[in-house]
């Protein structure tokens, strides 16, 4: 507990420190500098272009682990995981020229099935939940789409940045899509790539709308949950309990009669109760600075109570899946995360409920922090 209190005191100062990364991009073959290379932190708003002499500087970093990406036409994409704890100068980034291959020529003109393939891609990549109608792919022509009729599998990729305008969140997203696979028979979709966020210019009214929508996406998200843990607020905003651990409460005769009278149900006195976990039960420090681990013997269910709603799970009363926003089904023993609330091994767990259906249309940059607020809570009984 002393450690958590100390962390709570230091976290605001630590997370909002303004750090820099400096480096140089060169050709691995001849050592010459490469100008105009895109240098950015994956899934963040922090990016730049290399100068004529190949040098670059990234500003406004908070401490944490980042995925540094360098992309330039004619070279293989460079990627490096870096841990930022202070201003740093990294070794020269050596770019490997791509092996040039002849492009396939489709005889007979355009692909007659492309419109259907593109529609399938958009539905799964952008999603069909919040804000998908406000997202527009600006350059869909760069998508390489292939559909296997035999296996019912759609694949997609790009050689350059796919540009996506999100008018609900106020971002232009540049996404370098390495691989996208949709298996219609298995009802399974996965994709991987690198993203750079850019703020869209807008009026004051538009910015207010964007901020409200960003808050709607952020609060209750995995990032919010993990940051709340580090700020020692998870136990007040979230309820975490082991999957299907429950018992029946013993009640007094007077309580039993009162419940039966109120509900008309002769079994209403059999009240399911659930174990709830405190942060110390499932969060651990690691031997790596700024990295933490989620670990528990069974899967975890996560419930969120937004500002203005007072929950009653402190009494261990169960109300089905009311306000459940996620679950963590462990694949690896530990799920690791950093000070930014970024999960470092996303394939180490399977996320369900709202956490499992988030797509590009609801994606926020990892360096997004909502305005500080201290709302009052009102009691709302179930």
TrEMBL record:
Residues 1-17 form the signal peptide. Keywords: Carboxypeptidase, Hydrolase, Protease, Signal. InterPro entries: CarboxyPept-like_regulatory. It comes from the Bacteria. GO terms for molecular function: carboxypeptidase activity. It holds the Pfam family CarbopepD_reg_2. Coiled coil: none annotated. This is Carboxypeptidase-like regulatory domain-containing protein. It comes from Mucilaginibacter terrigena.
């Amino acid at each position: 507990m002393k450690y958590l209190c100390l962390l709570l005191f230091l976290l605001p100062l630590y997370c909002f420190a303004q750090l820099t990364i400096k480096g140089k991009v060169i050709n691995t073959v001849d050592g010459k500098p490469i100008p105009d290379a895109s240098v950015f932190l994956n899934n963040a708003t922090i990016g730049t272009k290399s100068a004529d002499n190949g040098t670059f500087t990234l500003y406004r970093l908070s401490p944490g682990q980042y995925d540094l990406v360098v992309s330039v036409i004619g070279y293989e994409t460079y990627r490096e995981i870096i841990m930022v704890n202070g201003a740093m100068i990294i070794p020269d980034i050596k770019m490997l020229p791509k092996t040039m291959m002849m492009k396939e020529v489709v005889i007979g003109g355009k692909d007659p099935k492309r419109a259907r393939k593109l529609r399938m891609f958009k539905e799964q990549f952008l999603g069909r939940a919040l804000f998908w109608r406000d997202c527009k792919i600006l350059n869909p022509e760069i998508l390489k789409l292939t559909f296997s009729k035999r296996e019912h599998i759609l694949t997609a990729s790009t050689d350059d940045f796919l540009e996506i305008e999100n008018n609900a969140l106020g971002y232009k997203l540049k996404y370098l899509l390495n691989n996208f696979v949709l298996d219609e028979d298995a009802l399974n979709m996965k994709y991987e790539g690198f993203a750079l966020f850019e703020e869209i210019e807008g009026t004051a009214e538009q910015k207010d709308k964007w901020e409200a929508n960003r808050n709607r996406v952020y609060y209750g998200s995995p990032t919010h949950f993990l940051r709340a843990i580090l700020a020692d607020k998870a136990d007040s905003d979230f309820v975490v309990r082991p999957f299907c651990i429950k018992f029946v409460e013993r009640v007094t005769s007077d309580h039993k009669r009162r419940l039966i009278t109120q509900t008309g149900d002769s079994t209403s006195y059999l009240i399911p109760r659930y174990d709830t976990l405190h942060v110390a039960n499932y969060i651990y420090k690691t031997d790596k600075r700024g990295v933490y681990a989620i670990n528990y013997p069974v899967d975890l269910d996560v419930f969120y109570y937004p500002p203005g709603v007072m929950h009653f799970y402190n009494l261990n009363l169960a109300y089905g899946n009311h306000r459940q926003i996620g679950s963590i089904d462990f694949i690896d023993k530990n799920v690791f995360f950093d000070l930014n609330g970024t999960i470092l091994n996303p394939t180490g767990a399977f996320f369900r409920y709202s956490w499992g259906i988030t797509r590009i249309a609801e994606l926020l940059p990892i360096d997004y922090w909502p305005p500080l607020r201290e709302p009052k809570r009102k009691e709302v009984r179930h």
